Amino acid sequence: MGEKEKFRRLTQVLTEFGKGNFDVRADLDSSDDVFNTMLAGLNMLGEELRFYKEQLEAKGRLLQDTIKNIGEIVYSLQLPEGQGMASYDFVSPRISQLLGYTEEQVMADAGIWRRAIHPDDKEIFDAAHRQLKDGREVVCEYRVKKHKDPGYLWLEDSMWPRAGKNGSITVAFGCARDITKQKAEATEREKLIRELGNKFNELMQFSYIVSHNLRSPVATILASCGLMDMELNAEEQQEARDCILKAAQNMDALLKDLNVILSAKSMINEQYESFSVNTMTSDILQALDKEITNARTTIHTDITPRAEYVNTIKGYVQSCLYNLISNAIKYRHPTRPLELSIKIWQEYQAVYFEVADNGIGIDLEKHGNKIFGLYQRFNDRVDGKGLGLHMTKVQVEALGGTITVKSQPGKGSTFTFTIRQ
Amino acid sequence: MTELRPPANAVSTATGFTWLDSSGIIIAVANEQELHTLKDAEENTRINIQLAQGIRRPFLINMTKLKSMSREARAFYAGPEPAKALLAVAILTTSNIGNLVANFFLRLTRPSVPTRLFTDADEAMEWLSQYLNNL
Fold first, then answer.
1. CB distance B68–A28 less than 8 Å?
2. Which residue in chain B has the smallest CA separation from A37?
3. Would you give the distance in Å from CA A33 to the centre of its chain?
4. How confident is the model at residue A384 (pLDDT cuts 50, 70, 90)?
5. CB-CB neighbors (< 8 A) of B70 in chain A
6. Do B100 and A40 touch (CB under 8 A)?
7. Which of helix, strand or coil describes residue B87?
8. What end-to-end distance do the CA atoms of chain B give, in Å?
9. What is the domain-level CATH number for residue A81?
10. Do A28 and B100 touch (CB under 8 A)?
11. Dihedral sign, CA of A185, A191, A195, A197?
C-alpha cells in the first residue's frame, strides 16, 4: 500500500472521528512506518473513544430518566450581569405537573415563573437571585400560582451558584419541590398548639376562680359551725344558722353556674338544625320589647339573604345574640336614647353576627384581656354575675367560631362573633 | 542482544509461543497479528498459569509484531487473573506499532503488577531477574 493510499485512509478515519463515528477501523499492512503506526493508533483510539461515548450516553440517559421522574423541578439559570431577569436554559419536565407550564414555555419566557409567584413572596424570590449573584447558596420558600388554577402551591427552592472562568457568577442550578402539604400540616400543628395553649389558660383561670369562689362560702360554713359549738343565745344561734344557709345557697348557685358552663363546653345533648336567623332575631327583640321601649331604642337590622338560614346549634346562637342585645340595653348611656345595630352576613364558611350600640362602652386598655373571663364585672351600676360574656365566648367557640370586641368608653361597643358553617 | 527463540518444548498458541526458561522466567513471543482479542488474552493467561506451576513468576513478552490489542484484552491483562501467575511484566518491542500498543496498555489500562517497556531483551531480563529472588 502506497503512502498516498495510507494518507487517504488516515484522513478518512479522522473525518469519521470528527463526525462522532468511532466505529470506523483502518486496515493495516505489515510495514512499521509512520502512517501504519498512526492508523494502528487511531484504531485503538477509536475503540477507546467509542467506549467512553457509550459510557457517557448511558450516564446521560440515566440522568435524563432521573430528572424526568423525580418529584422536584430541576433547572439551570443564566444570571445576567447587573440588573435584569435570569433566564432558564434548562427546566425538567416535572414543571408541567406542578405549575401547569411546559418546560419549553418557561425556557422561552423567563418571566413566567416570577409572574406566577404570590405578590407577597416576589421579594423573597428576587432576594434569592441577588444572593446567588453574590455567590451564595440559597434555600427559600414561596407561593406559586398554578397555571389556570386558582390555588397556590408552596415551593421550597434550593439554588446554588457556579462561578465562571473570570470568577463572576453567571450560571446557577436549582431544585424546587412542592411543600404545600407540609406547610398545611405545619399551619394546622401551630393552630392546634395555640388552641391547646388557650384551653390550658382557660382551664387554669376556671380552676382558680372555682377554688377561690368556693373557698369563701366554705370558710363561712366552717366559722359558723365553730360558733354553734359555743354557748350562744337563741338569736345568735339563728344568726349562725342563717349564715350557713346563705353560704350553702351561694355554693349551690356557683355549682349551677359551673354546670351550665361545662354543659356548653361539652355540647351534651345539643343538636344541629337549620333555622332562620331573621326569625330568631325578631323573637329575641320581641322578648326584650319592654326593655327596648324603656330605653327609647332605635334598631337597625341588616341580614344578608345568604345568611338567612344557618345550620348550627340554635340554642347557642340564640343565647349569644340574646346576651349581646340584652347587654346593649343594660349598659346603655344614661342620657341618650339607645341606638342598636344588628348585622348578620356570610363570608366563605363563616356567618358573622355583629351587635353594635352607642352605650357607655368599655375601657379595653384597662379590661381588654379580662372581658370574656368568668365572673368578670366592669360596672356596678347594673346587676349581674359576670357570667354572660364568658358563656357567650364558650358557646361561640363550641360552634367553631370566635368573638371580638371594639369599644370606646362613652361612645359605645361593637361585638362580633362568627360561627362555622 | 539476546534473541528470544522458542525452544522445542515451547507451547504454541493462536498468537505465538510461550515457555518457562531455565531461570524461572516465563517468556512469550507474539506473532504478527492484526488484533489481539479478549479470547487470545484468556487463552494466553491460562497457559501462563499452567507454566507458572503455582508460583508467581516474572514474565517477558515480545510484542514487536503485534499491531493492535482490543480494549477488552487490555482490561483483562491488567486484571486479577493474569496476576495469579505473574510477578512482574517486561514488555519488549522494537517496532513503532508495538511501542504504541504497549503504551496504550501502560498508560490507559494501568496493570496490576509492575510493568515496564523495553527495547532491549537483555535489559528486560536483567530487570526481571531481580524478581527471581522472590520466587
1. yes
2. B97
3. 81
4. low
5. 47
6. yes
7. strand
8. 26
9. 3.30.450.20
10. no
11. positive
Tell me the nearest-neighbour CA distance from B115 into chain A, angstroms.
20
Chain A residue numbers touching B97 (CB-CB < 8 A): 28, 32, 36-37, 40
**Cβ–Cβ under 8 Å, residues B40 and B6:** no
Among A251, A266, A281, identify where a domain stops.
A266
Mutate to test the interface with A, among B35, B96, B99, B107 (most CBs of A within 10 A): B96
Distance between B102 CA and the closest CA of chain A, angstroms: 11
**B11-134 CATH:** 3.40.50.10600
Instruction: Please report, to the nearest 10 degrees, the dihedral formed by the alpha carbons of residues A18, A23, A28, A34 taken in order.
Output: 30
List all residues 6 or more positions away from A71 whose beta carbon is below 8 Å from its beta carbon. Answer: A94, A177, A178
CATH of the domain at A49: 1.10.8
Where residue A269 falls among pLDDT bands split at 50, 70, 90? low
Q: What are the distances in angstroms from CA B109 to CA A53, A350, A360?
A: 17, 76, 97
The domain ranges of chain B are 11-134
Show which of A52, A68, A84 is a domain's final residue.
Answer: A68
- Picking from B64, B97, B101, B104 by the largest number of A CB atoms within 10 A of its own CB, the best residue to mutate is B97
The separation between the first and the last C-alpha atoms of chain A, rounded to the nearest angstrom, is 96
**Structural domain count, chain A:** 4
Taking residues A190-206, report their average pLDDT: 81
Distance CA A161, CA A163 (A): 7
A41 touches chain B (CB under 8 A): yes
Written as one letter, the residue type at A189 is: R
pLDDT of A375 higher than 80:
no
Residue A82 reports pLDDT greater than 80: no
Tell me the shortest Cα–Cα distance from A66 to chain B, in angstroms: 30
SS3 B19: strand
Return the pLDDT at B81: 94
Q: Are A22 and A59 in the same domain?
A: yes
Say yes or no to pLDDT of A264 above 90. no
Do residue A190 and residue A303 come from a single domain?
A: no
Q: Please give the residue of chain A at the shortest CA–CA distance from B103.
A: A41
Residues A383 and A396 in one domain: yes
A191 and A160 together in one domain: no
Residues spanned by the domain of A410: 273-420
Residue among B67, B96, B108 whose CB faces A48 most closely: B108
The grid coordinates listed for A379 are 360596672
Name the A residues in 50-79 with CB < 8 Å from any B CB.
51
The DSSP annotation for A139-186 comes to: EEEEEEEPTT-S-EEEEEEEEEEEE-TTS-EEEEEEEEEE-HHHHHHH
| Angle subtended by helix axes A314-330 and A277-287, to nearest 10 | 40
* Helix segments in B1-135, DSSP class H: 38-52, 71-77, 80-83, 96-104, 121-129
